[in-house]
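Changelog-adjacent note: as of this version, every example in the card shows the full chain rather than a window. The one below runs 640 residues end to end.
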Amino acid sequence: MLRNSNVLVVGAGGIGCELLKNLSMSGFGHIKAVDLDTIDLSNLNRQFLFQRAHIKKPKAQVATQAIRRFNHGLDASFEQANIKQPEFDVDWFSQFDLVFNALDNLDARRHVNSMCLAAHVPLVESGTAGYLGQVTVISGGKTECFECQPKPAERKTYPVCTIRSTPTAPIHCIVWAKDYLFAQLFGEKVPDELDAVANGEEGEDMEELRLLREESQALAKLTNAMGGPEFAVLIFTKVFDNDIARLLSMKDMWKHRQTPRVLSFDQLETTNDAAFDPSSIDDHVPMSLEQAFALFKHSVDMLAQRLVSERAKDAAAFLTFDKDDEDTLRFVAAAANLRSYAFGIDPKSIFTIKAMAGNIIPAISTTNAIVAGMMVVQGTLVLSGRLAECHTAYLSYGSKRPRNIVKDTLALPNPRCAVCRRRYLTLRVADCKNTTLGDVVSYINSLDGTESDLNLGEEMSIVEGSRILYDYDYDDNLSISLEKLGLAPGRMVTLSRDDETDCDVVPVVLSIARARIDPKAPGNPVASLSIEGFEQIPEFAPAPASDKKEDGADNRGKSKEGGDNDVENDATAKTIDGTVLSVADDGAFVIDDDSVDGIQSISDELSKRKIDEVSSTGLPAAKRRATDDSETGKTVEIID
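Full-length structure tokens:
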């Protein structure tokens, strides 16, 4: 069974490496791995399929090469690409018996969730956050999908593989400023991991390793100028001019990414106010490039003076970042914003950076390994046709709970879910260039009264994402071709009833795909339009009589009040009876451990609502209760 199965692994990073190794050694016969990233030095401490010689090579390529050595009969292939690219359409996903998600971002997870629902392929979803981890199975119409419960707008744990070379989010710049630049300049002196590369080694990647090592060594040498008038100039020129220019020389790195820009000290200096006052910067407003430049110079000089003074007393003295230390915080904020401007990323306020800098959780290789093992177990059950035996599994460590791994039954689909409560069908188009939206509407209307009737009525609307393409009162696009509307194979449109008089009419999602050519009948013309997949539509539970929630139900999605709208992570918090639940990672939920007194009320409330969330210990919230404890007065016990 496993040898004949064809599975897809999306992501070849921390979880992905462990998962690919486990799949190959468990007897899976056909594996496809997809990952856009290349290997970075920082990956080597937990992604054990990679070695120093693999730096800058595609992760998916190296990982599949490695697992073929574990299983010589394995058919393993790879794609170095973004899984959201249009070529990975519903037909492409349909070739797989099972999909494993090993991703680190919400956007890609949501996309794979939708594609698996459209292709009617089961999905094994996973996530880790430090010592927390979880695994669940998603099967359209049978279990909750990834979108059935609210998810955070932004993660609180972050991959480190892009920190030094290809940041794409503000948090990447904050981590770089705090854990790399600040640590190198003012932190405790520790051996650079690049020094582990022996000078005598040879290979095609040794030149790149040598350059990386020289980059860190050059920055370390600049600390000799600490306290001098040119120290800030030297540091700025090194990290925002020379290092970025070096990255730009690596053309292959920017094929699928936005290219950064070099920041010139001399150009920014012409706009700098010599009488700069750091207190003039509003902590709650994202700073401008000029403000970040001035604050960077000021904070570098302040920290350098502090460290020189301390080293006069103790030669081994160093500074430690503290978000409540104004000098260290302002340095990190200025450096992070300068890097954001260089890489085309939105700047953040000092207040926001202070909040975000305290939420960085390191990746733990053991957590990845355990989660990957649980994924293979769940995947094997799915391929064996034993979905009823699958579970959502939660992992935690270091708590007072009786065990580290617990399980819960798979939850049923949320009847209000805007993603999985849909009829997923495939719209096959022979020629998108010459087929108009009006042709599609006419074809759908022609199905009325047939066994393929979509039951959408005259007041049908067609939407792609947030873009309205057609409704009863808006027909401007009917004469425009699908190609000009951007509706190429790989895109999806949602069809629904505008009148909403019948809440049991489930909306339709049409995945646009190329028309099939029947090789047995080469003389028969291919239909210009056709819809297929009706036989795979699951039975849906009756929709709620009203979308109005019962008293108290809104607490599930209530946002925790914050003092600054820029603190995006706070928007993911939920409260029940005054106790805060927030999201620690894409799919991992935490409960404030200081709020022990609120655990009983939360457990009771969640049990009523059938909400399957995870505490900081990894426990399903609906399966927790409080008992007496000699130290705390209350503790949490697992109920199987």
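Structural remarks: DSSP finds 14 helices and 19 strands in the chain.
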